[in-house]
Design the sequence.
């Protein structure tokens, strides 16, 4: 629900990020991958995916969604009979796993890349839910400081279903373990290319902020799983299709646990209306905006990408 803040597309800063990512791989490794990728396509009669290894690595969200769709349409074997009659990954898919070798080979280097760029990319809270902090911490041993990541690097479009984008920079989302492993796993958010583009937090025009508002509502019907008659509950008001993303990550159910924070903000806002804030401002020699920030910390939470930033902003509207 929070965009990964890459520099603006087309700027030198954006190009520098892509160059730094490409440098994870040696010229020899890139050449080896390209040779094997070309050979795999030739042996399997694939002509609909002309993209090179380097293009796949640095392709933007819309291109990756298109590649994912084209790969999904291929008539290659994906499963084959295994022991006890259980289906296992096919030879064709295993070969791609070995070419675009993320697990046990490049995953550590990619995690290091995000550690090194955590400050520039504002990696602070989970980009899917904004409920958990995802951060980098450093351990100092003697004169050496080593950085470690306290977050998962999720493949937005699953590499298990499309190994050729397993090393794609703009397919990676810094996320919490709950969103990555327990909820999303190898599924896609949405079922078609337009939705994959729309719901990707890497997209420059990711629209969650403008299309979803978090609200408190009074429940007036019969009791449900987490709603009791006469009590407030958390509700996500969505438009332009973003209900799919909210439901996919179970955001309403998960935010319900933190309803007390929304209630606190609601009560604080009622306790300190603008007239009261103006009086306090005059007494302290501050502006009303400064008093408002001291009370609610809206700007602090947004500028520092803290958890509940959007919840706070929406409760104060």
Sequence:
């Amino acid at each position: 629900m929070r965009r990964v803040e890459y520099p603006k597309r087309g700027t030198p800063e954006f190009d520098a990020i892509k160059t730094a990512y490409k440098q994870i791989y040696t010229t020899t490794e890139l050449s080896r991958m390209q040779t094997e990728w070309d050979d795999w396509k030739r042996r399997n009669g694939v002509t609909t995916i002309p993209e090179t290894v380097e293009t796949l690595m640095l392709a933007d969200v819309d291109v990756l969604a298109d590649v994912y769709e084209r790969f999904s349409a291929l008539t290659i074997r994906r499963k084959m009979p295994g022991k006890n009659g259980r289906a296992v990954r096919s030879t064709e898919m295993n070969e791609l796993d070995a070419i675009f070798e993320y697990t046990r080979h490049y995953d550590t280097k990619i995690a290091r890349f995000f550690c090194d760029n955590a400050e520039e990319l504002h990696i602070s809270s989970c980009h899917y839910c904004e409920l958990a902090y995802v951060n980098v911490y450093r351990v100092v041993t003697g004169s050496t400081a080593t950085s470690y990541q306290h977050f998962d690097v999720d493949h937005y479009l699953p590499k298990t279903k499309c190994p050729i984008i397993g090393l794609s920079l703009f397919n990676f989302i810094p996320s919490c373990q709950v969103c990555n492993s327990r909820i999303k796993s190898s599924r896609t958010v949405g079922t078609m290319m337009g939705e994959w583009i729309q719901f990707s937090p890497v997209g420059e025009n990711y629209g969650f902020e403008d299309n979803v508002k978090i609200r408190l509502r009074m429940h007036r019907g019969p009791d449900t799983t987490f709603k009791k008659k006469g009590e407030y509950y958390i509700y996500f008001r969505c438009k332009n299709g973003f209900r799919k993303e909210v439901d996919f990550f179970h955001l309403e159910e998960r935010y319900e646990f933190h309803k007390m924070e929304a209630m606190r903000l609601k009560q604080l806002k009622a306790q300190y209306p603008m007239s009261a804030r103006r009086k306090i401002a005059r007494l302290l020699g501050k502006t009303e905006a400064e008093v408002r920030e001291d009370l609610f910390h809206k700007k602090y939470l947004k500028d520092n990408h803290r958890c509940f930033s959007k919840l706070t902003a929406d409760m104060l509207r």
About this structure: The two ends are 18 Å apart (CA to CA). DSSP finds 16 helices and eight strands in the chain. The beta strands are 79-81, 87-89, 135-141, 144-150, 152-155, 172-175, 212-218, 232-238. The CA atoms of residues 265 and 271 lie 10 Å apart.
